[in-house]
Amino acid sequence: MVDEEIDLFLNDFDKNQFKKDVEFLLEKIDFVKNQKFEIKKPELGLTNKTYFLKFEKINKILILRIDGENTEFYIDRKFEKIAVDFLSKNNFSAKIYLKFRNGLICGFIPGKDLKTFEMIEPKMAGKIAKRLAQLHSLKIDQIPEISSRKPFIVDKMFLYFEKAPKKFTNEKLQKEFENYFVKNGVDLDKNVEELVKMMEKCRPLFAIGHNDLVVGNLLYDESTDMLNFIDYEYVDLNYRQADIGNFFMGVVEISTNANYDAGYDSEGKRRFLKDYLEEFGTETDDLEREIDVWMSEIPVFEAASHLLWSFWSLFQAEHSSIDFDYIGYAIHRHQMYLKQLPTSFQ
Fold first, then answer.
1. Phi/psi of residue 85, nearest 5 degrees
2. Which one of 152, 178, 237, 291 has the minimum C-beta count within 10 Å?
3. Which of the 8 DSSP states describes residue 179?
4. Range of the domain at 58
């Protein structure tokens, strides 16, 4: 595990200084020290800025991540380092080579970003289900830093709700917020309360979860037939049902008018759960009945996913410099929460 953190706050506003600072960081990594490199433009992301570092004389690519502004208020970066080290040792994540004050440099995992139509195709869906089951099967009992934590979906629901601004400094954003949340009499406290009560009725099936399996975070390498998850910054203990429910809502492109019906239909979800439960080694005399129970619980966590990322997006609207309609996204996810929330749950 990388214990030392380089005392450097990196930004990319001044390109010349940025290149010098990256050179300084790479001098700390022995196998790329003194190597000429190229910085490729950042990939699209809604939390951080990510760059590819390509080296001239060695066949190696590294990933440079600059943490988004104020993300330390809702992402536990210290825990992320512990968890990613554990995942790296178990072949689930790229190795972190270096940490600096507001980011890291890690290894590169090859593969093609999977699009919605590819992820819902039965054969690929089966690969995803099995890989997720393998992740959830990792033994964390002997790692108290992970096993003792509160489930992500509950803990972060309260945290993101607390951090979400009630008033925005930007007048345009404030007006957009009021036009939906205030004029429609949205009671966010009640939303959280009723959702947490529903989650508490679900089986406490806890495991280490990715918690951000969305378009862009699943890669398939055709040459090795390997399916990998990337970007584990939200990794944490969680309900297994929550990680799956979030994934079901994450297979569509992130936008302010995303069509969540374009993802898995009921039959596709059942097939996914069958592959997942078989790979996980679920002990049951009646697999179809077990799938029925999962299908009754998953909608609760799909609704929770919508509400969680709605709160997250409200925070981002106030604090992020990334060009994205966070308010519009927060509104859309809240609308989907209302649509997805079960009318009754026993």
1. -60, -45
2. 178
3. I
4. 5-107
Of 33, 70, 38, which is closest to residue 54 (Cα–Cα)? 38
pLDDT tens readout for residues 23-65: 999 999 999 998 999 999 866 677 888 999 999 888 889 999 9
Assess contact for 63 and 48: CB atoms under 8 A: no
Rounded Cα gap, residues 148 and 114, in angstroms? 33
Say yes or no: 93 and 164 in one domain.
Answer: no
Mean pLDDT value of segment 196-219: 97
Q: Does residue 184 sit in the same domain as residue 315?
A: yes
113 within 8 A of 101, measured Cβ to Cβ:
no
188 in the same domain as 172: yes
User: Is the domain of 145 the same as that of 293?
Assistant: yes
C-alpha pair distances (Å), 250 with each of 83, 123, 320: 22, 18, 21
Task: Judge if 326 and 180 occupy the same domain.
Answer: yes
CB 53 within 8 A of CB 61: yes
96-100 and 5-6 beta bridge pairing = parallel
CB atoms within 10 A of CB 134: 15
CA dihedral 34, 25, 93, 234 (to 10 degrees): -160
Residue 232 forms part of a structural domain: yes
What letter represents residue 252's amino acid? V
